[in-house]
Amino acid sequence: MNKIVHIGMDVGSTTVKIVVMDEDLKEIYTSYERHYSDTKNTVCKVLEELVEKYKDKEFTIALTGSGAMSTAKFLDVPFIQEVVACKRSVERYIPQTNVVIELGGEDAKIIYFGRSVEQRMNGTCAGGTGAFLDQMASLLNTNTAGLNELAKGYQTIYPIASRCGVFAKTDVQPLLNEGAAKEDIAVSILQAVVNQTISGLACGRPIRGNVAFLGGPLTYLPELRKRFVETLHLTPEQTIVPEEAHLLVAKGACLEAKDESPISVEKLKSKIQVLKHSHDTTTVPLKPLFSTNVEYDEFKARHEKDKVAKKPLSEHKGDCFVGIDAGSTTSKLVVIDRDGTLLYSAYQGNGGKPLDSIIEMLKKLYSIMPKEAIIRYSGVTGYGEKLIQTALNVDLNEIETIAHYTAAKKFEPKVTSIVDIGGQDMKYIKLKNNTIDNIMLNEACSSGCGSFIETFAKSLNLNIEEFVKEALEAQNPVDLGSRCTVFMNSKIKQVLREGATVADIAAGLSYSVVKNCLYKVLKLKDGKELGGTIVVQGGTMHNDAIVRAFELETGKKVVRSNLPELMGAYGCALLAASQKSNSRTINQQLETTGYTSRQIQCNGCENKCFVCRYTFPNGNTFFSGNKCERIFTNRGESEKPGQNIYTDKYALLFDRETSETGNRTIGIPRVLNMYENYPFWHALFTRCGIRVVLSDISTFV
Q: How many CB atoms within 10 Å of residue 306?
């Protein structure tokens, strides 16, 4: 009778997987369950069940997985790296495998097998993982299984961002608002995961041969697997879906455990007790945002100084100027007089329809505008600036950086840095000698933006005002780092179970927003790089906790107006007020703002973009979604191919007359810095009487 059982445990980011084998390596027990970030208690629970089930046996144990290292340390059992565990299982159970694609709750991996094993794994972003799918499924009021069922009946695949859950939500919400079929949205989400995995992890290295699909999402969501198979053009013979694919890594840990010395039931029970009472002491509390009420009073008084002058619109006579900011999640509108005094403002979420929200805001403005007030000029900025300008004949469109700089300069003429944190974007504008010297924006991640804070406030069952209040009163803010929204969610669950208060978490999140902005987006090493005068803007900067955390992290006091969320629109209005000519027809066009939209597919190139064509009563046409200008142009201009700038660049660089005579000949390869410096070398050698021969354009054959 077998007296020893071998236990392999895969402690992942969202689940705990266990495989138990006898001395002949025959599988006798398996378990798979979510730990909801309570890995310690979940591991203790399943081990206690095993002790009870096999109380007449001895045990060998090995742990693997992203959440297993500290658990293995407290249990005093071996920790096996995931690639090693996966390699052992693949070699034993599916030796024909060339590439493994594994998706977990918060991690994604591609492992190449050959002469050596190479692993590609996600690092700071959990886009395209199981947790990402959970978030997207909730938008469709279903779970991941429901997402899989919906995807079976799709007709069209839309482009959806998968690099960041917040960005993906921005793509999904307009589709829902426009009435796109849930089946099409579901399959588009699955395709986004495929695109993220292949582009983000493979990074150009081909995925060829026999491909094995592992992990929970790829085991339980066959439609997701199907998207991989179709995208990679795999044949049925090349597609490997092993039995119990979600347990394969745990099996590898089990195979490693068999070589360990067995321990008795009593010994295992004592190890479980050690784990139960263990505490991770690696997290050190951060400094409170305010140590005393006096500090907070001084902070409030200082920021009360920088105010936009206001007066009622009803009392205004004469010229006024409209500024519109069509942002990623909100629409903002301001009306000012020629001196920059604020006459009227409006701020609301756009629900994925920026044009409709702007029209609604303008109609309300016109309903209360006195006859003596005349809109002399208008301007628009933000993500939807061209759409709004085309639809409403707005006079001026300006990029966000210039609009925000114009507003900041109104409050602080000597500004050296502008930091703007909006709903889904962050901007850093560095100034030198009153000129924009550098601009940086978040590209692939929106952790640390307004949507990030709003989401977590809701998860803590708080509104934004309550969130700020809790954060300001916290005495031991938790250090949550600066990470992906999905990763942060797990960290919050963990510290809650370790006894952290809601206030400590709220303050910790405020620090995280700032750290993410400074170190991930701005990539600063020291607050001194921001210069002496910093202006902060954006709706997120209305939050006192965020502004205070920013000042503590940088060691500098900042300038914030009383309307930071309106600064883009305010700057645009100031630019409009600086114009000399009269307005066009923004105030007449509103009565004819009915428009039609139709989705079409551009066949101008191999991208085959899905494009939304807007047609407005004023005769203008706007195209949205096109990745280039090959076919479509905006503002009703004639449709013509865009200019290939690279062709022009190569002609300017390399189309040069070469002398057929010369006492010597030199060959120059068309590589590396020759794409910038060839004109210099050609001129130098030609002047020296040397004949220059340039290599041909690469053919890649």
A: 17
